[in-house]
Structure of Nucleoside-diphosphate-sugar pyrophosphorylase:
Amino acid sequence: MRAVLMAGGSGTRLRPLTCDLPKPMVPLLNRPIAEHIINLLKRHGITEVVATLHYLPDVMRDYFGDGSDFGVQMTYAVEEEQPLGTAGCVKNVEELLTETFLVISGDSLTDFDLTAALAFHRQKQSKATLVLKHVPDPAAFGIVITDEEQRIRRFLEKPSASETFSDTVNTGTYILEPEVLKYLPVSEESDFSKDLFPLLLRHGDPMYGFVAVGYWCDVGHLDAYREAQYDALHGKVKVDFAYPEVQPGLWVGENTTIDPEAAIHKPVLIGSNCRIGPRASIEPGSIIGDNVTIGAEADLKRPIVWNGAIVGEQAHIWACSIARGTRIDRRAHVMEGAVLGALCTVGEEAQIGQGVRVWPSKQIESGAILNINLIWGNMAQRNLFGQQGVSGIANIDITPEFAVKLGTAYGSTLKPGATVCASRDQRSVSRMISRALIAGLMSAGIDVQNLEATAIPIARTVAPAMSAAGGIHVRLQPNRNDCVLIEFFDENGINISKSKEKKIEGAYFKEDLRRAHIPDIGRVFYPAQVIEEYSRSFETHLNVEAVRNSRSKIVIDYAYAVSGAVLPRLLAKFDCDAVVLNASLSPTPLAGEEREGLLTQLGHVVEALRANMGVQVAANGEQLVLVDEAGIPIRGEQLTALMVNMMLTAQPRSTVIVPVHASSAIEAIARRHDGKVIRTKANPTALMEASQDEPNVVLGGSGDTGFIFPELHPGYDAMFSIAKLIEMLTVQERSLAEIRDELPRVSHKSYTMRCPWSVKGALMRHLVETHLEENLQLIDGVKITDPLTDSWVLVLPDAGEPQVHIFANSEDRDWVDESLREYRQRVQEFIDREQGVEFVGN
């Protein structure tokens, strides 16, 4: 039997350790990761290995040769032009794979029972068997769902937090029959999880998941790299050590000298030809390579030290990684999580701070204190993008220097000379961050149409008219007055896709930043007639005569947050009487209770003026809360139902788009008008994309206070919502109160509770496994439905916080209360069980 060892990875998240090494050749316990994999294959009788290479291929070929010194037969296939992907590289060696073969990643540490996996594959007569593993935090891996026979039913590659349906993940080890490769194109990039396995599912080929028992660690980032070695030293994984165990927990190579006064606290691994000086202290978990010198009184607490390094007298190196040939001079400090690339020099009494990374061949002067990465940027963050754009605390997380780099990273993903629209709210911090983003874009050779302080619906409308490649909008977060939100949208005004977010993150983290030459630096333009462009589009998609004939009186409260210049001007053209409140621009945002106070005030004004309606506009022109003629607020699920009812009354047999958690009142209304309801994931991008992609869509509703009218632009627009309301109330000759009274009576409640990140995936798997498949919907989170009614419960993991949201929905209020109580208890009991806490019920 042959194994294909996928060893082409460059290991960008392991830099600077992989600047001059391919990822599979990074040493673990002083042996390359790939050698541990080959030893595993040998233990299970697999001695013919085909290694697929791309990044620095000679390093592996020079080390392993023909494999005879390692007890295997090695063959190599190099992807010369470009990487072919996980499946494409295997397709590339198809002629060598004439019988059942194993595919295994060259950058993970494992002791899986491959013999048992192969027996399972043959017993099931499977075409493709995926070796799976239960993990605490599955968000970084491909999730797999199997039935009771272990046949694969569904999988999702690297899901968002709200899509973690299970904690069973794909480990990148597969047992395959040769005929499955016929589905793959020749010499083209393809991926097992994204391309081949979905094809096998669609064609009904038998595909099974073997849940392995044992150790598995994807050595994908620097923390995992250290933890895998600590685990191996403590016996959590079966590996072959490169040196004899001279004492329990102490492995030492040949010709190594340890001074009698040195203190070695096991477990520790020390390579060959090393010198350990007097009174040196080496703490448990330390791993020292070959030809390493440790000076007198040096203090080593769990560092990973590669071959040829020198650690000076009284130096302190703690839980860090030191690449080959690096020198740490006397009394220098290298703190936890720091990483020094090959051939660096750290001067006397210099200090390298926690988590700092230093690229190869850098020199740190004596006495220097280094708290930022040298040359390459800070990559400590897990990711940049959350559920909606990039957000963080103003001027702490989101600083000008961060924004410049983010703007450069975004610009680097676009073609040189492309145009980006930049807009913001009127806050000073937004102006500062916007200017920094613009500077970054210009440095990457991107032209900028600076719309300055502009409501985001206007920016989404005019960007396509300017032939922009995309846009950025900076504002304070609607629900967090201390946080800045940076949103990115594409050439159509839709929030950018996850794949584009990943490209920006890749450019940011890998420092793959384009720097334009002086003649090519971007320019900034300040376009005129932006509001006029929006106004033309606004009027085109409105029944102007109906609005003009309404003679409506409206009270608009801008809550000191959005420029009041746009909507009243538009409504005045249609002979509507718009009374504007609180339209001055305040540099400081309102607290929640202050906004509620203004809403109460708005109700009083509407009553006093006998206006047709009042509306409070928020989120820089995106969101609204209505007030009817009696001064009573209409918001949330009730507002969504009201808008859907009015749109489907005006255009029956149309389609509306709502997120998975919206009230079932939407379906009840759609049935009255022979309409169609499509539900999406909870994030705004999914709603925007569906509103544009699905046919016959008249409205997209956030389930809260935002509405999309796809014919206008793809984002939420409170201003157009107001004008459309006036139009429909006039045409339908009804009042808001009358429409509200005829809405379906549905009880819809939610509850948010804390859930650790490490438990989310297991919780979702538990819910999937403990409910009938026909009662489950897995659009986003886990939705448990009653097939005979519109009643349901949804457990939705939060994408950005260690929380889950529980929604209950039914026409029966008691059922909602009881279900919410039941699932709160279920979730809490599961969390407590996973964390070893005894649950105490209410």
